[in-house]
Specification:
There is one protein chain. By secondary structure, the chain is an all-alpha fold. The chain has one domain. It contains 12 helices and no strands. Helix 2 runs parallel beside helix 12 and helix 3 runs parallel beside helix 5. The chain is globular, with a radius of gyration of 18 Å. The N and C termini lie far apart (46 Å). The model has no long low-confidence stretch (mean pLDDT 86).
Length: 282
């Protein structure tokens, strides 16, 4: 593979969609250590998430659109080697944050491999795939960041519920590809409309947990905090409602372009809201 194709399969911009998990961890951590925070985000958003993307791409060998990449180039063994080197570099950066963080990120890497590797392929098992993402990529990462960056976590439920809401939507346009492989993703298992119902249920459960999270963390600024959160999430929620309306009329509306628009609105809005909350908390 050419260096450009290898770089494309790392899907570095896609890491921004996962930034809310780390920002939630920082928000829960209390007073931050700037040096540790730098190494945490370098390890996650430059190396470890991208290594997982490349590992997944090697075993998926997608011919159609995948998250963050509309036209994935063909893959070969060099992509697998790149993913392992990239993960090693990420673990070195994680160790610079703390040995404890490096250990938890090593466990994250194991979950990622169990999800994609053809010998285990949890991705093809609907509940195993869902639980691997929401707890391995969600709660585990949240706890690792919160414990490493500051005083400790308040809750990992918010991150797990957010990923439960978002994860099925990232699979909703891949039903034909998954069926061609003989695999049953969570979204394929519950169906297109079931995917949207599942996501709405997850977001509905996340809302009161998030409110409690903010009440416990920043009681003196609760109204401002909720306003910032609402400002960040309203565009994504409005779009989700409009998208659902189109899908209920025509299931072909559950396409790659709409999924990426939803991801950009949800992650972008949440990133802005959480950054503002970090500044407000000081």
């Amino acid at each position: 593979m050419s260096p450009l194709h290898l770089l494309l399969h790392l899907r570095l911009p896609f890491s921004l969609f996962l930034a809310p998990i780390g920002l939630l961890g920082l928000l829960a951590a209390g007073p931050l250590d700037g040096g540790r925070t730098f190494w945490i985000f370098l390890s996650l958003h430059v190396f470890l998430y991208s290594a997982s993307n490349a590992f997944n791409s090697f075993y998926d060998k997608d011919e159609g659109p995948i998250g963050g990449l509309k036209n994935p180039p063909p893959v070969d063994k060099s992509l697998l080697h790149t993913s392992l080197v990239w993960e090693f570099l990420g673990l070195i950066c994680a160790y610079m944050a703390s040995p404890w963080f490096a250990l938890l990120m090593f466990l994250y890497g194991l979950f990622s491999k169990l999800y994609s590797w053809d010998k285990t392929r949890w991705k093809a098992k609907p509940l195993a795939g869902l639980l691997c993402i929401i707890f391995g990529q969600g709660s585990l990462t949240f706890l690792a960041v919160a414990w490493t960056a500051g005083n400790g976590p308040l809750s990992s439920g918010v991150s797990a519920l957010i990923l439960w809401g978002v994860y099925p939507l990232t699979q909703v346009y891949q039903h034909k590809e998954d069926s061609r492989r003989g695999e049953t993703s969570y979204s394929l298992w519950v169906g297109i409309k079931g995917t949207f119902v599942s996501s709405v249920l997850a977001f509905s459960l996340a809302a009161p947990v998030f409110i409690f999270f903010l009440y416990f963390l920043m009681p003196q600024d609760l109204l401002v905090s909720l306003s910032l959160l609402g400002f960040g999430l309203v565009p994504a929620l409005v779009y989700l409602g409009m998208w659902m309306h189109r899908v209920w009329k025509d299931e072909n509306a559950a396409d790659f372009k709409s999924t990426m628009t939803m991801n950009i609105l949800a992650s972008g809005g949440l990133n802005l809201a959480l950054t503002a909350l970090l500044i407000l908390r000081g």
